[in-house]
Amino acid sequence: MPELPEVETIRRDLARVLRGQRVVSFAVKRPKLLRNPRRAFSRYLVGSTITNVERRGKQLIFKLNSGYSLLIHLKMTGQLVWKSSRGKISAGGHPIAGVAQVPNRYTYIVISLGDKSNLYFNDVRQFGYFHLVPTNELAQVFRKLSPEPLSRSFTFSWLDMAFKRRGRTTVKAAILDQGIAAGIGNIYADESLFVARIKPSRRVSSLSEKERQALWRAIRGVLRRAVQARGTSFNSYRDGLGRQGTYWARRLAYGRAGQACVRCRHVLQRSRVAGRGTTHCDICQR
After folding, report:
1. DSSP-based three-state secondary structure for 215
2. Confidence (pLDDT) at 97
3. Stated pTM of the model
4. pLDDT tens digit string along 134-193?
5. CA 112 to CA 169: how far, in whole Å?
6. Active-site positions?
7. N or C terminus: fewer CB in 10 A for the chain?
8. Structural fold of domain 156-280
């Protein structure tokens, strides 16, 4: 599933081609991908203009001048493909073979735009969704999410208070909680804990203030570097221009079990923490 850096990269790329576009039509082959009745999309999406493309956690937000916003969650295998009237392609999300051939067997939603371009939503496993929400209710929809980890609101004091509610859980489970670190998934949890030198299986209550500060700095630093690298690509992500993100080549822990630690050269270990495959260094992470 794309995490904060990947979704932010897709947002930036799609904003360039979608901002200011009028929605001419909306077609759906799998109504189960819609969180609203189909008629709501005809009333509040069709005929409206996309005023901006934003993000909250792992979700894309298309702001509309109808007073509504369209939330899109890619989940595990969702993919958005924009195709211009001249055949230019921008694709973001899970890579599906033959992306230039849209619509294809996995295309379930098509949004046609005023400049005769189209936005296609493909989803192999059909876990993603489209959700129309009144724009003035977005804060309520996202009320359970933490402040954005790269925003000024995500302060050490805020994180410290949030940790007190999860004292008995493992630190990895805590930062995977979207109410504590919105947008973080397995990749950036492992990376942040490695940078902070904290073992993923530690209990939150066992962390010293110095360790909690180190983790707060690590989360922000890792996410910032990943956004600059346009996300992580290994086998399940392409950015909004159809390119691979480059953070994969820079990763320090995630997916490197059995390889040498970049700090101490000890072999990195794989375990299961918070129900997720986890990579850590027994020497550097305490």
Report:
1. helix
2. 62
3. 0.91
4. 999 999 999 999 999 999 999 999 999 999 999 999 999 999 999 999 999 999 999 999
5. 46
6. 2-3, 58, 276
7. C
8. Helicase, Ruva Protein; domain 3 (1.10.8)
Q: Tell me the mean pLDDT per 10 residues along the chain, length 286.
A: 87 93 98 97 98 97 98 94 89 71 93 97 96 98 97 97 95 97 96 98 98 98 92 51 66 95 97 97 97
How many residues belong to the chain?
286
Delimiting residues of CATH 1.10.8.50 domain(s) in the chain: 156-280
User: Which of 137, 126, 119, 155 is closest to 68 using CA atoms?
Assistant: 137
Residue 114 DSSP symbol: T
With tokens 């211009």, the residue in question is: 84
E-state strands within 48-117: 50-56, 59-64, 68-73, 78-83, 89-93, 107-113
Instruction: Please report, as a single letter, which amino acid is at residue 79.
Output: Q
| Distance, CA of 212 to CA of 160 (rounded, Å) | 7
Q: How far apart are CA 209 and CA 232, in angstroms?
A: 30
CA dist 228 → 225, 231, 245, 261 (Å): 5, 8, 9, 23
Query: 4-141 belongs to which CATH class?
Result: alpha beta
Residue 34 φ/ψ, nearest 5 degrees: -100, 135
Q: Which amino acid is at 211?
A: E
